[in-house]
């Protein structure tokens, strides 16, 4: 019997028994997957009611720290910045296991994906040394602030703007971000803004910076165990050292 390979089963009727899905994992990959599976089974599923159907910020932060202690937050962080730097298959296996806890996965994905990978991919050595070890350990929680009320998928339509201070030491950020996952507890935000009204750029903004305000929790139809708030930036002074990838954007 001929096997169906590739993605042909997506566009033609097929017997499921004829579809080949390669799963030739290494022993290390299987161990990593089992670690993530055990974390979900032992740490998250017993707390489904508390974590999936309502927002429990402290519990979410606690479980993110536990994931950090297990190394699950550091999968794609380079070893020189205290990460595991596993292969992409292993990283995907971790995601495949943790996504069983859907609301928690939003927080987890913000930490390991869009909240930290911009620093991994575009940060300089000093930025990586300052932020990645804490993010990988779950000691610093990260979020990604791109969406605005008037611009979602049209990211370049964002109105948040950044202006270099007279002494050249800071960028002054003003604007509002909307629907930012993990914002009620994040310590570090990747915030996008236009420099000089044209150059779409990213900044590492710490929660402690003056002028950064977190709005109330959004009332969502689903994913009720995840945090979603707005961010308002009012003359937030961001050190020039926190610009990611240059003022022309990343």
Automatic annotation (TrEMBL):
Residues 26-139 form the Acyl-CoA dehydrogenase/oxidase N-terminal domain. Keywords: FAD, Flavoprotein, Oxidoreductase. GO terms for molecular function: acyl-CoA dehydrogenase activity; flavin adenine dinucleotide binding. InterPro entries: Acyl-CoA_DH_CS, Acyl-CoA_Oxase/DH_mid-dom, Acyl-CoA_Oxase/DH_mid-dom_sf, AcylCoA_DH/ox_N, AcylCoA_DH/ox_N_sf, AcylCoA_DH/oxidase_NM_dom_sf. Residues 143-236 form the Acyl-CoA oxidase/dehydrogenase middle domain. Its cofactor is FAD. It comes from the Bacteria. Gene3D superfamilies: Acyl-CoA dehydrogenase/oxidase, N-terminal domain, Butyryl-CoA Dehydrogenase, subunit A, domain 2. Belongs to the acyl-CoA dehydrogenase family. This is Acyl-CoA dehydrogenase. It comes from Robbsia andropogonis. The lineage of its organism: Bacteria, Pseudomonadati, Pseudomonadota, Betaproteobacteria, Burkholderiales.
